[in-house]
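fyi for ur records
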Amino acid sequence: MARPRTHVDERLDTPGLRRRSFLPKPKADPDRFGRFAEAFARSMGTATFLFWMTLFIAIWIAFNIVLARVHGTAPDPWPMMFLTLLLSLQASYASPLILLATNRQEARDRIAMENDRKQAAQSRADMDFLAREIANLRTRMGEMATRDFIRSELRSMLEELDQREAETAAVPPPGAKVGQRD
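which gave:
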């Protein structure tokens, strides 16, 4: 007995029953095919490819025109339907390969951008830490005696010692007679 359909069965985000396929799935390495697509897209985007494609088409057209004039018939007569078919076939394969290569490049760019974002966040955290450490050191340096301060303190102490020495030299020791010379 079939169960009644509900609104949940009609939702697109709910997986349905799996259907078995009788066709074998192709066993292709997606990375290998992706690398092939990228190489293909890179080669199609070059001036060399355009040169050779233009040369091929020019030779094809010239060959068919010459054969038509000489023999009266050519393998691909004037509307050149076979050449059109070849170019259409090349375009129909090139488009998905170029899109695949673009998608792979976009995925690499997304990963690189995420890594750059993480690196920038880490660099920002490091800079914030260093700024706090520098501010802490500056605060501590304000509390510490500087070299100039220590020098000025030492100079004042030396002057004080010189002054005491001068005072002790001017005052005779106890028990000595004033005015006597040795």
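The chain has a mean pLDDT of 84. thats all i got for now
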